[in-house]
Amino acid sequence: MATDVTSLTDDQGKLDLELIEIQLLTEGIYRHYGFDFRDYSLPSMRRRIWKRIYSEGLTTVSGLIERVLHDSSAMEKLLLDLSINTTAMFRDPTFYKAFRAKVVPMLRTYPFVRIWHAGCSTGEEVYSMAILLQEEGLYDKCRIYATDINENVLQKARSGIFPLNTMQENTSNYITGGGTGTFSDYYTARYDYSLFRPSLRENVVFAQHNLVTDASFNHFNVILCRNVLIYFNNVLQDRVQNLFRDSMEMFGILGLGKKETIRYTNVAENYEEIDVEERIYRRIR
Ligand SMILES: C[S@@+](CC[C@H](N)C(=O)[O-])C[C@H]1O[C@@H](n2cnc3c(N)ncnc32)[C@H](O)[C@@H]1O
Fold first, then answer.
1. How far apart are CA 261 and CA 229, in angstroms?
2. Would you say 115 and 221 are in contact if contact means Cβ atoms under 8 Å apart?
3. Which of 19-28, 40-49, 110-119, 265-274 has the lowest mean pLDDT?
4. pLDDT tens digit string along 117-142?
5. Ligand 1 pocket check for 41: Cβ under 6 Å
6. What is the dihedral of CA 130, 133, 138, 140, to 10 degrees?
7. Of 13, 153, 197, 205, which sits most exposed with the smallest number of CB within 10 A?
8. Is 233 a residue whose pLDDT tops 90?
9. Which is nearest to 125 in space by CA: 201, 217, 71?
10. Is 230 a pocket residue for ligand 1 (Cβ < 6 Å)?
């Protein structure tokens, strides 16, 4: 049904129009560049799109459509804005404590362990897991696949170099997360950065993978995808959870972020809860 054009001047009319523009933007990006943001959750997309609109000196979403479709460097900047890369070592330390107590004993019984960190950002989560596994004497039999949509963050992850000014928070997380050694033994401080031990990434493969458009690439005993699904709408969360279920060995472990759950997804019945608070689940069917 056609809209009365006079109604487009009110606030609701403007919001409706903006929604159409955002849909056109994400559809255009998908068809031109292949990045699929069509099912990302609207409130956070909106915030990030407006950040880029202001940075480009524009005033409308339509202006941004024109800019990114004709200028791939503007698209790259938007891509960086759309992927929130906030992370920290031993982030949500109680997760790591629970992982040590409840998952490590299971992993001890396996001859070989394949772990997938999906949406690993700059790699802090991966180095944290490597430290934990080394301390538990499991690292040598583990192979870690760490993926992200964003190649820039993966390059940082591969370097093993992290800002020195984050080490205070990382050390405190490490201790709360049940670390059994001395955190500073894992890195060498140089000027304003810290270089982590190369042995921590010996069994790690960093690779670009898009959870929205790419298929499964292996079967895993552990899949960690923390603080990524919050940016997806329900349809996309279901799709990605299906990808994880299909990539998961029977009795494999799924770890999500504090604000994420499988409870309302269509794979809920495939898992049992290992630790409800810490969002740790085990595939049972
Ligand atoms: C907030 S960070 C979370 C990092 C880490 N997992 C943690 O919990 O600290 C979210 C990451 O998800 C990645 N991401 C967003 N959409 C993605 C997609 N479709 N496929 C793979 N990674 C994606 C972003 O690039 C970003 O690095």
1. 9
2. yes
3. 40-49
4. 999 999 999 999 999 999 999 999 99
5. no
6. 20
7. 205
8. no
9. 201
10. no
